[in-house]
Amino acid sequence: MANNMELLVENNPFLTKKIIRKADSKDARILFLYPNERGMSTIPPSIAGLSQILKNEGHTTGLFDTTFYKFDDEITVEDSDKIKANSLENRPVLDRDDDDLHFKKTTNSAVEDFRKSLVDFKPDLIAVSCTETTFLRAIRMIDATRDLGIKNIFGGVFPTFAPDLVMSYPNVDMVCVGEGENAMVDLANSIGNQEKQFDITNIWFRMEDNTIHKNSISRPVNIDEIPEITDIELFGEERFYRPMGGKIRRLLPVETHRGCPYTCSFCNSPGQNRLYGDGDFLKGMSFFRKKRMDLVKSEIENHMKKYNVEYIYFWADTFLAWSDQEFDQFIKMYSNIKLPFWCQTRIETVDEEKFRRMKDVGLDRVTFGLEHGNEKFRAEVVKREYTNEDAIKKIKIVEKLGITFSINNIIGFPDETRELAFDTIELNRQFNSDNTSCSVLVPFHGTELHEYAVKKGYLDPNIICSVSNSGASILNMPQWHKDDIMRLRDVFAMYIKFPKKRWPEIERAETDLELRENLRQEFIKTFWSNSQAKIEDDIAEAAKGLF
């Protein structure tokens, strides 16, 4: 038994220190805390994959997911899906109360239920997976249960890029800097061996004297070695449902890429490339990786067979960052599946033949990041170098093919003005998109724009962004007040879809809430005329398997 276990562990590709489980090792019990925002309901492949890796090592995992909870405190925004529907970024699913059909109905306290989970599960470790927007929620939950004496580790993009800031919170015991697959297996094995090991790559430890022991970063994970069948069941069936395009879909994500080869200034991915370095350290590996197509196929087939999934979301910053050969492999693979799928990619990657072929095998919706409509500002500040002419040409191809698409935009960039934002509106008016998303820039730690905003004096370097892109701006800029940015965000889609002769009316609606709601209802009736009647039928059908 011991020999077989040791052989299994030695062959595990995620071990960097290779902490071997001893013959008398116990199974570590790890409870994931996912402090998710209400409405942000897509299952993260990272937790499902990591949980499966740990289970394959013989450890026991559990999950406390806050997706369905309401938080009555100042750091919590309302349901993000409702915010987007109210600002006309997404088609409304239904005009109903806050107990949305696609949410498990609970009025319980998240902290009280979390405490009960800890008492019942008896974990050796709480593993917190968080972003910058959810970090403070996690801290509140950890602080409120600290008396139980359970150690914790914080991982995710925010702890990776702001580890010193995260460790400044006294109840944070460990931080994982970078990817967690390598580190967590070693840490779990160390716990199982009942040993205190502090030289595990990627992990920072708080020592007994309150000093921080900082370890180096390991090489990027080979994502082809992540289990094909991941621990989706950890989340529960109710998390399979996701509003999209005015419908509720039984949807699961599939990771095809990790990282991104592009350098957008608002994104963390370029920071990952800088964090991991290059040259000798990577030894030919890039932080940007693509999963082998046969593994993608196996994961999809498992989702179909085991979970009766009806819709696939391909988890990739830029889905079409395939080589021509890899794209051909995808089309061949997916032609035998043909489930409707959604992906996001860059405007620059649009090719008529590729999109025709994707439509033939199941492409239902694609999201493009336009970001900004002024070419000079887009190139210098956003670090996106394409022309408006090319954007129009590319999107017209997608329109001609009859593919449903949405456009992502951002306002509230450092140094941006209202006039510059209207360049973005003008460019969007050239497209017949199904949805037009307008997010307010959040200058996350680890992004180039965070550093720039701090340098310009628009942002305190230690401020933690506790709101998502659906929330308010946190930049204090003299040329454009944060309240005015939000008012424009709320009517952004109206400026795009309504005739220009109505722009004075829309401008009044930025401050007149009654007028804004009247225009919103007109917008829905005019441009989404089939919303309510059809959506009610869709929801009724989707709900059959939900309750």
Determine the strand fraction and express it as a percent band.
5-15%
Count of individual helical segments = 20
Percentage of residues assigned to helices: 25-40%
Unreliable spans are 1-15, 74-78, 94-103, 531-547
Task: Please describe the structure with a list of short key phrases separated by commas or semicolons.
Rossmann fold, globular, seven-stranded mixed beta sheet, 16 strands, alpha/beta, 547 residues, pyruvate-formate lyase- activating enzyme, disordered N terminus
Characterization of the model:
The protein is of the alpha/beta class and 547 residues long. It folds into two domains: 2-69 and 106-214, 3-Layer(aba) Sandwich (Rossmann fold), CATH 3.40.50; 236-510, tm_1862 like domain (pyruvate-formate lyase- activating enzyme), CATH 3.80.30.20. Helices cover 38% and strands 15% of the residues. It is built from 20 helices and 16 strands. It has helices at 2-10, 45-56, 80-86, 110-121, 135-144, 157-161, 163-167, 181-192, 269-276, 293-307, 324-334, 352-361, 375-382, 388-400, 418-428, 448-456, 482-497, 503-509, 513-527, 531-543; strands at residues 29-34, 60-65, 125-129, 151-155, 174-176, 203-206, 212-214, 241-244, 247-255, 257-258, 289-290, 311-315, 341-345, 363-371, 404-411, 435-440. The chain has a seven-stranded mixed sheet with strand order 2-1-3-4-5-6-7, sandwiched between helices. The protein has a seven-stranded mixed sheet with strand order 8-9-12-13-14-15-16. It has a two-stranded antiparallel sheet with strand order 10-11. A hairpin with a 2-residue loop joins strand 8 (241-244) and strand 9. The longest helix is centred in the last third of the chain and has 16 residues, at 482-497. The chain is globular. The model is unreliable at 1-15, 74-78, 94-103 and 531-547 (pLDDT under 50).
